[in-house]
Each structure stands twice: as structure tokens, then as C-alpha cells.
Structure to design on (70 residues):
């Protein structure tokens, strides 16, 4: 198991996601999106990893709903 993310990282990622920032399911692409925020390297990587995981979960949920409808 990996390390858990702190509440502040989760809260910040949720705010960014709701503000219209389009994250991908790729970690490297998410890191490049977060470069402009002037975060430390550790925080940037943690937020990019969290957004990668949540985006993958969203896509899996959408696929599951599509399969259920068929």
C-alpha cells in the first residue's frame, strides 16, 4: 500500500478539479499541468498522483455504467 494523502492535498486537488482544470490519466501530463502553480516538487508529485488515480477511477466508473446499460 502507498502512503495516504493529507487532507490539504485532497482539498486542493478537489478545488482545482472543480475550477475547470482538465487532468488526464497520465502522471507526467498532470505534473506538467501543475508546474505553473509554484508548488514544491513533493506536493506537485503528490497532487499529480492523486489526480491520476481519481481520473482513472472516474473513467472506470463511466465504463462500468456503460456496461450495465447494455
Amino acid at each position: 500500500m502507498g502512503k495516504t494523502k493529507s487532507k490539504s492535498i485532497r482539498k486542493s486537488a478537489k478545488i482545482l478539479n472543480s475550477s475547470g482544470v482538465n487532468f488526464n490519466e497520465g502522471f507526467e501530463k498532470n505534473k506538467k499541468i501543475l508546474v505553473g502553480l509554484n508548488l514544491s516538487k513533493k506536493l506537485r508529485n503528490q497532487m499529480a498522483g492523486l489526480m491520476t488515480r481519481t481520473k482513472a477511477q472516474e473513467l472506470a466508473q463511466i465504463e462500468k455504467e456503460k456496461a450495465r446499460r447494455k
Remarks:
- The first helix runs from residue 7 to 18.
